[in-house]
Amino acid sequence: MEIENNKNPKIHTKSGHMGYKSGNFTLAKKEGSSAFFSSMFFIFMVFFVFLFCMSEVFACGLSPGKTTIYIYPDQATSWTVTILMDDNNNDSYYESTTSIRKLYDPELEWASLSPDNFTQSINISSTTSSYNVGVYINISKGISVGQHYFEVYHLCEPSGGARLGAISQAVINVKPYLISGLAANVSQENKSNLILRWDLFNLTNIDKLVVLRNIGSNVTIQNHEYVEKISELSPDSTSYEIENAEVCRQDVNYAVYGYLNGRLVATSQNVKNPIVGCPLPFLSTSPLNDSTLNSTSVLFEWENTTSIPESEIYYNLYISKDDEFKEALVFENLTSTSYFVGGLDNGFYYWKVYAYSKDYGFGIFSGTKGFAMNDYDSDGVYDDVDNCRKRYNPDQIDSDSDGIGDLCDNCPTNYNPEQTDSDGDLKGDACDICPLDFFDDKDGDGICANFDNCPNNYNPEQTDSNGDGVGNICEAGNGYLWVTDYDSRKAYKINPQNGEVLGNFSLPDSIPIDIEWDGKYFYVIGDSVKKIFKLNETGDVISKFYTPTTSYHRGLVWNGSTFFVVSGMEIYVINERGEKIASKYISDGSGGDISYDGSNPWLHQGNINRVDKLDENLTTIANIPVPATGGETGLCWDGRYLWMAENDSKKIYQFSRNGNVLRNILIPNFSISGLGWQPNSSEVCYDNSACGADGYVGDSYCYKNDLYQDYESFNCTYPGTLFAKCSALKFAKKKEECGADYCDGWNKYCVGNSSYHNRTCYDKGCASNSCYSNPNYQEEKIEDCSYGCDEGVCAVCSLNSHCGNDSWVGEAYCNGNEIWQNYTSYTCENPGKANSACSANTAPQLKQACNSGEVCYNASCVTPVCSAESDCGTDGYIGNEFC
Fold first, then answer.
1. Residue 572 burial (CB < 10 Å; 0-12/13-18/19+)?
2. Are β-strands 263-268 and 177-186 bridged in parallel, bridged antiparallel, or unpaired?
3. Tell me: the pLDDT tens digits for 289-328?
4. pTM of the predicted model, to two decimals?
5. Which fold has domain 284-373?
């Protein structure tokens, strides 16, 4: 069985012994420097293996030194540790104490151990023996997916001798349960939505599911705490519909993770948008961005694209004078990759193209480009002769005759056609009192920063006693040292002038390694849990992430965009999520703490007593000796010099990049495990306001019928770091939108028996460097009213007769012995009022009742000729008879 030594490389010194510190346990060794210890440790290990093979016993030892175990979240596990005792050297061991402990991590405080922090003692003063201890770890109460570290610590003490100890470590790899079959498909009902589906099978030991999304890279166990959480679902959910999912984006990754009591227990694979029927990315090609066209017509051209699976592609062309395309010209359903547009006014335009699939309906935009039609700034001067093309200056004033209009000239009264501005402060070198100093002598001592040996401190005499190019007044650096201490698990703020402790805060790990400041937060490695903790200035944990290695850590530095982490025999380059970007094996030396001077990393090589300067490939290009060799640890950069701590003498040394030791300070009796630097606000910019106050400058002016003024914006890049840098930008900014002409609504009223209305219209625009709004009163007669005026409205009627004459309509008819006919009557509702209205009602009405003896026939009353046959005559024969 291979026996691994798992000791931390950063050895610290205590009174009477030197040892490895881990939580509450110490492995005692004899005093000596870390370099000496490293060398002797190797020899000791070779000798140890030889003795072990020869005697098969190990004085006060543990076996195995390290073991790795794989389990699932709701499983328990165990491992057996053999404790070896050897009295062959007549050391007369009289006590052996064995403890099990969990390496510190706030997330794991509820994990139970059985036996919990147990202690066993055995008196073997006259015997040689070994015994086995079965270590049982019950993690069913909640250890999350990932790697977790436990250790058994064994301490034995011979009579009259120094204590000796050994550690057996178990790496418990908790594997996640699988949420299988995760797939993404476009919704058939709404093609802008995405439906995720997955299988749970018999996965029941979860109490919630979370849908996760990450842009640009996969969702992982290491970064899942920091990526976007789209939704929390019930534990039996097997699908989720994402609305407006931008289904044509190709850099979106989705995953579904399962949790139980707040801990991660199940994961899915990642899926991307299906990209079915989406047009492939394409470019708009002509007109070119920021170009000027001396024409009133434009040919727009763009690349052809297709989709997978292939589908006919249509294009929409958008053209607008504002970059948000609020009032855009849109030409839709184009089938070619070019389109001719005429009649465009002078001015600046933005344009883009939307391509979409005819069969699927999905689409993507090209990038937005801009161009000018003849006159970019609409000042009436064509761009080919305009001395200030992007600024409205119809007068074309050029005070120094350098061909640059005053409104665009960074030195309007000094001839400088090249417009050189070396320090980027918006003042041309020709008129800048300190052309290489952004702040133009920030400390006011009459010496520009590029010549000042202490640019942030008033020192007109420029005293430099040691001739190193740094003024005496700021020799010690302008900021604070920070030290991480093993024993107290704290970070201490140190005055670099005298070593005085100015403050401290507690650290969240039992093995703190190094400390680094990024301008806003501190970063500290917690070696027991292999994480980097992000802390605020009072030590509160803001966030944390795993490092990509399980080896012991030696150093950490931030270069403004990434971290360099020294672990084991490698240097890792990682991002702020702990994801590995690159790594480099340390072939020469063993590696130690690391720092960065704004251009190059510097690596402490403890076992060969030197500091290496590295290039961008992390290859050594130069080296200097360490300033001391008494257990040195920790390395940082203060903006001018390197600093290194020495544990033996409790000193911190300041030295130059050529190896010259400048000074040292004495600090309290710390067990130093890391060193960092925090510059103060007078040394570097901590925010944009330190570079200057954003605001309007110069006079306002009219442009595009609105009021504009030059605006200066200041920016601090990498704020608070030693490579912080100020920059400034001047641009035309709309100060006031003068608005378009408009009119109020009409107000109606009556004048006598007539209807009128009036309103106020406003002529709006910009003139004489200010917005104007000129009112114009308008009044109009609408009409004369025949039946009266009320509330500005002519009444429809004031009498019933105004609506019509009542009359019989249609044909009369008989109804029994009566004559009936339909009759229409007219009514004026609300007579004479604004809401007057006419109504008509038509209904059957009795027209005439027939008199007695009369009957109704064909809508008339008539007297009948007869009412019986006898009224017509007497029946009888008439004439002669005949055969």
1. buried
2. parallel
3. 988 888 778 999 999 998 877 888 999 999 998 888 988 9
4. 0.51
5. Immunoglobulin-like (2.60.40)
